[in-house]
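Ticket 4471: requesting a sanity check on a complex prediction with flavin-adenine dinucleotide. Repro inputs:
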Amino acid sequence: MDKYDVAVIGAGVTGCAVAMYLCRSEVSVIVLEKEEDVCSGTSKANSGIVHAGYDARPGTLKARMNVRGSKLIEELSETLDFPYRNNGSLVLCFDEAGMPRLKELYDRGIKNGVDGIEILTGEQVRQKESAVSDEVIAALWAPTAGIVCPFGMTAAFAENAAANGAQFRFLEEVTGIVRDGEGGFVIRTDRGEFFARNVVNAAGVYADRFHNMMRSQKISITPRRGEYVLLDKQAGDLVSSTVFQLPGPYGKGVLVTPTVHGNLLVGPNAEDIEDKEDTTTTSEGMEDIKTKALRSVPGIPYNLTITSFAGLRAHGQDYDFILGEAEENPGFFEAAAISSPGLSSAPAIGEYIAGLVVSRNGYKPKTDYIGTRKGFTDVSRLSAEERSRLIREHPEYGRIVCRCENVTEGQILEAIRRTPGARSLDGIKRRVRQGMGRCQSGFCTPAAMKILSDELGIPMEKITKNRPGSELLRGDTDGVS
Ligand SMILES: Cc1cc2nc3c(=O)[nH]c(=O)nc-3n(C[C@H](O)[C@H](O)[C@H](O)COP(=O)(O)OP(=O)(O)OC[C@H]3O[C@@H](n4cnc5c(N)ncnc54)[C@H](O)[C@@H]3O)c2cc1C
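Returned structure tokens:
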């Protein structure tokens, strides 16, 4: 049986952040993920906002992790080279009745240590964002808020962890954890068994399953679905900051925001559901978010919509994140109930949980730790000179595969050759944006499949969109009349 110091369950943004911080010490780490890639759960489908930290209740782990996490994300986006932009956020207030709630958010922000927040008048808001509704009478401005590519950040954490020794096992679903006589744990998966001295539960909406195996006080995690519409880049500069409405009992409400890649994102709503895999979108949901968002920004050009999607928040029965070591099962650590702002908090959670594991076991800092990583090449952002130099040296960067996003064969090969690298069409799409544009992969899928097939040495019929069972081709039609 393979033995590790730490097994992390789940390769979402939380698990990858934990692995990355663990690998700053002399620790052997394995990350077990049931899907075929990193960032395949909630981390792939959210608003991509790095919240400033005024929303979380003061004194909670959420508040602490959010404020620390947002600072870390800005720093890490430099050292690990992933897309992030500090665009600031506004929470709009439409009438006098909303002012006490706006003031409450401001006070929370001050208590949580959020820098630079202020309440603006309606006029000041419209000077900043001319597309915002005339109905707005005031807003909370948070200059430290930002936008990030959730996949780009998670991939960066995973690659940095791998560069520092972490191993990743995909399509490996953890089915059980039992205490071992050696003072560690045997982790059973659908494909085998591992021994680990410590376990970190970062299983997203499934974290209650492992929590309830190892802890006396049981929890349940409800998937709280949020739906979105994504608009073409033509609409991407309608607003430059992230525009929220006052939050309600189910969360932060519907927002309108540019994405870090230049699209416009509208959503999400919030609906508690039972199925932890149900990320379908509904026409009622779409109508609901579209109508609500028009109250903030009346001119949203919905005719430029290119796709819709949904994500599932891991909503625990209590307000806060569950972070720490199980008293009744020392060595079992968890980051459970990581609902919003889990993306913003991820590096702080990683730093915190890794710190607990390292200090419990007395692991030493790694002397040859690699602190930087080069992001994916984005040919469309290179200057003409840089582009021609790259193409001269590597002609595959001159062959465009995805015309909407200008993604080249060279970028797709890069996505596949990274560690951990893309093994499916979605893996390529999320890393280098092939198929993310206006045509939503209508034109470039066959070319991407061919590159994946040649590079991995597997037949076209075995190429998947994501998990097994999502193969696109069913056989050869040659000779069939
Ligand atoms: C609609 C919506 C909007 C949001 N917007 C924001 C935002 O703007 N800003 C923000 O800060 N946060 C936001 N969030 C929250 C944020 O997305 C999450 O908190 C964060 O992504 C959680 O990451 P995670 O790694 O804990 O979970 P996941 O990303 O779900 O990762 C858990 C992983 O564990 C794997 N797994 C589960 N069971 C097993 C098993 N048995 N064996 C092996 N692997 C397993 C899963 O496949 C998955 O990959 C939003 C969430 C939603 C749904």
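Notes from triage: The mean pLDDT is 96. Leaving this open until the requester confirms.
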